[in-house]
Amino acid sequence: MDINTALKAFIRTVERGSITSAARDLGVSQPAVTKHLANLERHLKTRLLERSSRSIRPTIEGMELYEASRLAIASIDAALEGAMINTGEISGNLRIHAPSCIGAQHLQVFVGDFQDQHPAVTIELVLDDRIVDLIYDNFDLTLRYGKILEQEVVARRVGWVRRFLVASPEYLEKAGPVYEPQSLSNLNVIATLRTPSNRGTVSFYHDSGRVEVVSINPVLKTNSAQVMTSAILRGRGIGLVQQNLVTDLLRRGEVVRVLPDYTLESSEAFLAYPSTKFMRPVVRAFTDFVMPRLRALEGLMQNEERRMEDA
Fold first, then answer.
1. Cβ(263)–Cβ(163) below 8 Å
2. Rounded to an integer, what distance in angstroms lies between the CA atom of residue 65 and that of residue 46?
3. Residues 177, 183, 187, CA angle at the centre, nearest 5°?
4. What is the mean pLDDT of residues 92-118?
5. Which element (helix H / strand E) includes 211?
6. Domain residue extents for the chain
7. 67 falls in which pLDDT band (50, 70, 90)?
């Protein structure tokens, strides 16, 4: 029995609560994982997992083995990968999660640049706006907005994401000038899935410090950066956007600021990785590569300009 492979199958099964999911994550068949688990239980002469029709949970002995072995296995993987770096090549697989806007607009470019320098690295880049569990979902890194409260996560602050209103000149010519935030209640608005709030409101911050809360009913809500910019450019409405999404469009005059004396709540951004995994050399290399590039983006502030979003 390959004890290292069997332990990896066991650890991932505990984390996922499913043999099928563990097999998919490990890139092997379900029968192979089942065989590894059976061999491990036979070797230890004890039951490690309680199986039901709906889930799999570790026994007391299984949880003790999981807690004792997961850090050891992670340490071995990191050590082996580190030894390979002595040959002068960074290699390995990276699973990265990020919000769709900054991910589609910028992070995918940085990923390509990193692979140009390290062609032996393979990367899975998942872009959506959900909050992922780094352990359960098996990600090495996540770029996340808002405070990170999980105890088993190490977070490095990227900065605060500046957000404001933009529209195409064509839409403003049709809709007329916008002089105050309250006018948005009667205009077409394009927003992300997380904006407005559950109460249907958006807070606007004037340069003087005044705050105005406005009720809006977006004509389009999306988690796609491409969909949002396309809708704004086609004159579908006023977009509530991150500055980094529209920097080039503003520079070319394809969109213009609406209510330039106002901004929306800024979002604190973090790059996070699980503390329960030893930081593999490829993870460290990518983190060191991408952090200065993210912080250099227009609209990524190193000092908080507006109150952060709690969401």
1. yes
2. 11
3. 80
4. 93
5. strand 211-215
6. 3-85, 92-153+270-297, 163-264
7. confident
